[in-house]
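Sat 14:20. Reprocessing the chain from the morning session after the first attempt stalled halfway. Input below, unchanged.
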Amino acid sequence: MPIKLDNDFEVYNADQEILGRLASIVAKQLLNGKKVAIINADKALLSGSKKGIIEKYRTRLNLVEKANPAHSPYWSRRPDLLVKRIVRGMLPYRKPSGKEAFKRLFVFIGTPENIKAENIKKLNIKDPKKIFVNTISIRELSKLLGYNAKL
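Finished this time. Tokens:
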């Protein structure tokens, strides 16, 4: 069932945006009680060396608790769920306010048909390619971590 995005949603385009900066803005909007949708999540960028970022996320994927492996943290390889988890890291998720805020977050790969172009917000930040030397897209990171669906 497709999600109906009303006019009460704040829609952010993650295309060519630094994910940490976008996630902090989105987290603040969620904590203020707004519904937020992120589109083009697979095109968001992470700054830093590709080798270091890939190593960091591969380590996170392989974390296993010895006593009970079912209690281990879960990191998805899918781009939209990865972005959602990164935003969750900026919310007080274990408190009721953080859980309610997280329920108001929707993340999409690409752009759904029911979103109007005039409602989409773009961050007013300089071009990431001019600020950062090394960046990697979430799409590329997901492929390197083993996500093999057609993006």
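The mean pLDDT is 89.
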